[in-house]
Every structure is written in structure tokens, then in C-alpha cells.
Specification:
Transcription Regulator spoIIAA, 6-stranded parallel sheet, Rossmann fold, alpha/beta, binds 5'-deoxyadenosine, binds iron/sulfur cluster, 5-stranded mixed beta barrel
Length: 473
């Protein structure tokens, strides 16, 4: 495949960093430390992007706040996957009228997938005059330059031109935690599932070079991170665009070779190209978590075809059977869309039966949301919202029941878990994850945060496990 992407040069990133320092002088001119707030919607990829925005803001001398009245700079990093997320963003951006009134110099930026859609950028331009800066996911690397333009010229800046995608290395990052880290291995998506807006807003698939990914993984391990999640819209396509002989399974193996006690997770995988090699690699790599998130979307072959998913129910079930034969303790999670245009009651029943058959540990279920410009948006959609809601409720009930049963089976077992934080609650003061990624509420010493411990599981419900921590060696 042709090697087609725009790589941002290190010199360009250096220039952005210089701009950060100029902005720092300007913002700090009155001797007061400026405060920034970054509000993130949507997926982990967006969380990872927000860490870069915070990295730049820290270079600008900013401290961080969660209070929008206190913030000098507010960045809202948006999602476009479903209408609900967009409505929340618009509501919350609208509410910033109050903060801007109280603090007229406040800078409000809206970035990310939602504003990469032309109609949404237009809506902000026309109806949200308080927003000073609008930029899409391809412009994050030059956030300092865009912000400087707003500060210099005292006028609104929009940077949302169409773009098939860039790769920028060397952007500073301010990571959210000290135990778990996101590591993007690729950006964009080429699959064009007919309901999905992602390929339009995040551009074509671009893999980071393996040596960049490995170097970042090594840094994370050296910094003490214990849980590294490799991110991409479709990680199984990793490397295909690079024209070199490395695929996602090879990448996992190379990260697994980094010395240290840590876990490798990844998401998201597309069933059409989850290979036997991937499952074998997972099984053979002791640091690779026994969890795969494999969105099935529907149990009906007709619907899967209409979604352009390129696999059948049978192929999906075969894949799961193979993965489970290689990893009997595999935790399996999925995404499902109900009410895709034209999905009949019988077709929905096929989704229910698939879920009964697979028994997912957890399911993320969504009602289909019409996205401007996608092929599904012009498909006949005769079923009512109430009908779709009824199906959604039935699926949720099934999913909750199965998750509760699966969690129930952990009771009485001892699990090696990674303690990832404190909950602030008295009874179960720690939160942790099993190797397969299930949430565990624990009683234990706060000093255990960041450590692997053995937990005795005492109860479980739909959402979580509960237990008691013992120190591990
Ligand atoms: N409507 C509802 N759900 C969607 N998803 C993606 N696009 C849509 C849409 N238009 C879901 C898919 C995907 C998850 C991230 O979001 O299930 O796997
Ligand atoms: Fe969207 Fe399909 Fe790409 Fe996932 S694989 S981001 S659902 S187009």
C-alpha cells in the first residue's frame, strides 16, 4: 500500500514549543499563574489527545482547574460518534456564556471530532460567538500557533480544513495518572462502516513507526506505569500503511519483551482482521492482558452487510471459539448498535441470540444515531424511537444479567489485580482491575496504589467485583 501521510517535522514541533514559551510570557505578564481547563468527551483516543493539549498548556505555564469560572483558557475536546455526545457538548459550551461574562478575557476553544464536521463548525461560528478558537483533530499539533493567533489578533480562529491525517511525534504530554497510560499506535480509520462518522473526521489509517511506539512504551515502563493500553480505531490494521514487515501482533511481542512488571492492553479490534496470529501472540505474551474488546455491532448477517462490517455472524463466532480455545480465561467485551436503519424484530432477535451464545463479560450498547454524511443516514429507517428503546432495554437487561452471572463466578477466587486508585469511599477505599480488565472495589492500604496485589473476591454484581487485598510479592 502507498505510504501516504503527512509527518510533522521535529522542527515544526520545536517551533510550537517556542510559541508556548512566548504565550507563557504573555499570559504570565501580570505575575499570576494562568489556569486552564480541558474538558474531554468520547473515546480513549480523545483522552490521549487531551493529554497532548494539557502538555502544551503546561509548557505555556498554565496550572489546571476543573472550575470553569476560574479558568483563563477552556478547551472542550469533543466527540462526534453519536448525537447525544454532541448535544451535551453544545449544552455545556452554551453554559460558558456565564463564565465569559464574568471573565471577558477568558479564551474558549472547541476542538476534536465534532467540529471537524463542516455543519458543526458552522453552527459554532453562527450560534456560539463566545467560542474563540475551533480546531479539528488534525490540528492538535499546532494548538500553540492557533492560540497565539487568537491572542495576537483578538479575533476568532477556525482551523477545520479537510485533511486525510497527520502524524506528529514529540508533542509534550501531561498524563492523567501514574498507573495507567494510553499509547496511541495508529490514528484514523479506513473501514467506513456505514453508520460511522469516524473515518470522515479522523482521516485515513496512519501507523506510528514501531520504534516510536516501542520508545514510548519503554519510557512509560521506566516512569512506573503498570498498565499500558495501545490505542487505535482499528489496531489490527497496524503497520499495513507502513510498507514494512511489522503487524500488530509483532508490535505486542516487541512491547512484551520490554523488561518490567506491566500489562499490555489494546483497543479497538475489528473482527474482520483479528487473526489467529494475534490470538496466539496474546496467549504467548505473559504481559498481554487476557482481554479483547471485539465489537460485533449486530448478530444479523443482513444488518452486518448493510453496516459494511465485512464479516458474518458465523465468522465472528468461529473467531471467538478460536480465541477462547487458546485463552480459556479470556475476557470478552463488545459494542452493539440497536435500531440500525431497517433492522427488523427478527434481526434484533439474532443479536440477542448471539449475545446469549457468546456470553460477553460486558457489552456497550447504543441506539443507532444518524450521522450527517454517512451512507446509513440515507437508508430507510421505518422503526420508531420507542421501538428502538424497547429493544435497547431488552438488550441491556440481557447484558446486565450475563455480566452479573460472570462476575458471580469470581466469588471465592483469588485474583492478581492492579490497584489503580483510591475511591474516596470508606468501605471499599481502593479500585483495581483484574488482568481481564474487570473493575474490583477493594479494602486495603492506600500504599498499594500502583501495585499488583492478590485480591480475594467476596462478591460481585453487574458492574463490579468486591474484595479484600493482600500484599503480593
Ligand atoms: N450510532 C450509534 N452507535 C455508534 N457507534 C459508532 N457510530 C455509531 C452511530 N452512528 C458505536 C459503535 C462503535 C462504538 C465506538 O460506537 O458500536 O463500536
Ligand atoms: Fe467507525 Fe467502523 Fe472505523 Fe470503528 S471500524 S471507527 S465503527 S468506521
Amino acid at each position: 500500500m502507498k505510504y501516504e501521510r503527512t509527518s510533522i517535522t521535529p522542527q515544526e514541533i520545536d517551533r510550537q514549543l517556542e510559541l508556548c514559551h512566548r504565550i507563557a510570557d504573555r499570559l504570565g505578564a501580570d505575575g499570576r499563574r494562568p489556569l486552564a481547563m480541558v474538558d474531554t468527551y468520547g473515546c480513549q483516543q480523545n483522552e490521549a489527545d487531551s493529554e497532548k493539549l494539557r502538555g502544551y498548556l503546561a509548557e505555556m505555564g498554565c496550572g489546571f482547574t476543573q472550575d470553569e469560572f476560574e479558568a483563563d483558557i477552556i478547551v472542550v475536546n469533543t466527540c462526534a460518534v453519536r448525537e447525544h455526545a454532541e448535544m451535551r457538548v453544545l449544552g455545556n459550551v452554551g453554559a460558558l456564556n456565564h463564565t465569559k461574562k464574568a471573565k471577558p478575557d477568558q479564551i474558549i476553544a472547541v476542538c476534536g471530532c465534532m467540529v471537524q464536521q463542516e455543519h458543526m463548525a458552522e453552527k459554532i461560528r453562527k450560534s456560539y460567538p463566545i467560542v474563540d478558537l475551533v480546531f479539528g483533530p488534525h490540528e492538535i499539533w499546532r494548538f500553540p500557533e492557533l492560540l497565539e493567533r487568537v491572542l495576537e489578533r483578538h479575533r476568532r480562529v477556525f482551523a477545520t480544513e479537510k485533511n486525510s491525517g497527520v502524524v506528529a511525534e514529540g508533542i509534550p504530554r501531561q498524563r492523567d495518572g501514574k498507573v495507567k497510560a494510553w499509547l496511541s499506535v495508529m490514528y484514523g480509520c479506513n473501514n467506513f462502516c456505514t453508520y460511522c462518522v469516524v473515518p470522515y473526521v479522523r482521516g485515513r489509517e496512519r501507523s506510528r513507526l514501531p520504534e516510536e511506539v516501542i520508545a514510548e512504551a519503554e519510557e512509560l515502563v521506566a516512569a512506573g506505569y503498570r498498565d499500558i493500553t495501545l490505542l487505535g480505531q482499528n489496531v489490527n490494521s497496524y503497520g499495513k500503511d507502513l510498507g514494512i514487515d511489522v503487524d500488530f501482533a509483532d508490535l505486542i511481542r516487541r512491547i512484551n519483551d520490554i523488561p518490567g512488571d506491566f500489562l499490555i492492553r489494546f483497543m479497538t479490534s475489528h473482527p474482520k482482521d483479528a487473526t489467529e496470529k494475534l490470538f496466539r501472540t496474546m496467549a504467548e505474551c505473559e504481559k498481554c492482558a487476557r482481554h479483547i474488546h471485539l465489537p460485533v455491532q449486530s448478530g444479523s448477517n443482513r444488518v452486518l452487510r448493510a453496516m459494511n462490517r465485512s464479516y458474518t455472524r458465523e465468522k465472528y463466532l468461529e473467531e471467538i471459539a478460536l480465541a477462547r480455545s487458546l485463552m480459556p480465561d479470556l475476557v470478552l467485551t463488545t459494542d452493539i448498535i440497536v435500531g440500525f436503519p431497517g433492522e427488523t424484530e427478527e434481526e434484533f432477535a439474532e443479536t440477542l441470540s448471539l449475545c446469549e451464545e457468546v456470553r460477553f463479560d460486558a457489552m456497550f450498547t447504543f441506539i443507532y444515531s444518524k450521522r450527517v454524511g454517512t451512507p446509513a443516514a440515507s437508508m430507510p429507517d421505518p422503526y420508531t424511537r420507542e421501538e428502538k428503546q424497547r429493544r435497547f432495554d431488552a438488550l441491556t437487561e440481557l447484558s446486565n444479567r450475563i455480566s452479573a452471572e460472570k462476575h458471580g463466578a469470581y466469588v471465592g477466587t483469588r485474583q492478581r489485580v492492579l490497584v489503580d486508585g483510591e475511591t474516596g469511599r470508606e468501605e471499599y477505599n481502593l479500585s483495581a482491575r483484574t488482568n481481564g480488565g474487570r473493575l474490583v472495589h477493594l479494602k486495603g492500604d492506600p500504599g498499594l496504589v500502583g501495585q499488583f496485589v492478590t485480591a480475594e473476591i467476596t462478591s460481585g454484581n453487574t458492574w463490579a467485583l468486591y474484595g479484600k487485598a493482600e500484599e503480593d510479592g
